[in-house]
Amino acid sequence: MTRSEAIAFALNVGVPLFLLVFAYLVGSFLERRHFAQIEQRERQALGFVVTSFEALPGSWAATDATLVTGSVVVSLDYFKRIIAGVRAIFGGRVKTYEPLLDRARREAMLRLIEQSRRAGYDAIVNVRLQTARIASARGGEGTAGVEMLAYGTAVRLDTGA
Amino acid sequence: MRFEPRQPDASVNVSSTHPLTEASTLLVGLSVLVAALMLVAYFSIELLIRVVPAGTEANWFAGLSPVESRAPTSDAERAAADLLAELAAQWPDAPYAFRLEVLDDPTPNALALPGGLVVISQGLLDAVESENALAFVLAHEIGHFHHRDHIRQLGRAAAVGLFATALGAADGSTVGLTMTDLTMRGFGRAQEANADGFALGVVNEHYGHVAGSWSFFERLIETEGDRRFAAYLSTHPASAQRIVALQEQALGQNWRIDGPLSAWPPATR
What we know:
The complex is a heterodimer of chains A (161) and B (269). Chain A is α+β, with helices and mostly antiparallel strands and 161 residues long. Chain A is built from 3 helices and 4 strands; from the N terminus they run H-E-E-H-H-E-E. In chain A, helix 1 packs across helix 2 and helix 1 runs parallel beside helix 3. Chain B has helices at 19-51, 54-61, 75-88, 122-127, 131-146, 149-171, 179-184, 189-207, 215-222, 230-235, 240-252, and strands at 99-103, 110-113, 117-121. A 3-stranded mixed β-sheet of chain B has the order 1-3-2. Classes of the chains: A alpha+beta (161), B mainly alpha (269).
């Protein structure tokens, strides 16, 4: 192997390897931090009624209702992309995607709840979750990211006061 | 019904496997898979060499040229083509119809392409100091055909292609093998040594001595680091070791290592 070939090989292998390690370190740090934050916010949101009922329970009397949405767009880091790519050869649970989508789902729900609570609503009914793939710029091939959308009807209840 | 505020169970939707465990399991699995596929590729090529006659191989690749070479036009180029034909006559039962084509490139280089096509660069014709040196380079390329390095090369390229495609699948990009990839990677060190050995025999038969055979290598060593020779070196690793091997072969066979060199470019015939 000539020197230029050796340098080319080192670059071809070294750069992706560096990216892999770097993406793993940064990605897992950010993920841990996000999960910690999500758990703390979920504790604060505890007690706020969020249901998937399509209609209000008969005993509730709403004085105001509005559509609320919580949306998150997530994308993959290099580490998750590569590992999921290898997983795609063998098949099975794509374990590196699971925490990513879990974060997106819970973050979208928290955004839904937090804005409803700030606006003075008491509960959200008919909550739905929906995803949409966002195509990347290059010819629509590949995925730039996934949107996780949570929406529902926020209601203000007549507490009889 | 009473409403009881509860935190959802966060563990159900996320596998507990550590990402690094997942990564190492998958990468080890991929390596095993790739190694197995490469082994299969290697053995099927060795099988192919035994099963497919060289003539059939020549038919497969006849007319295919991955480089933009052209038929010889100048006197020197035609003389080189004649020289190739004379050298090929030392291998009478060759299944290949050897052709010589010229690449308009100032860097000295020579390639053996499937189907009996030998491509030399304009730069090689300018760089050689004697006909004997050119003869050795041409005979070396014939040697690659003799050992059927092309089919081996095909196997190597297929194995490399498998690996690249496996990585490509992981990367989300598509990797296609081109004819150039298949043929332009250069041969392995052992294949070069075998071709050298064959070439020395051919040159000895042709001239009655092997003088001048390694003069081109000596020039390469002198000019090592000279960028003009980088192309030839990338496909033909040149080293003092190669010269030593040739000299040992000549001594072992009792071939004359000195003799009259034929002039290059030849006087107009």
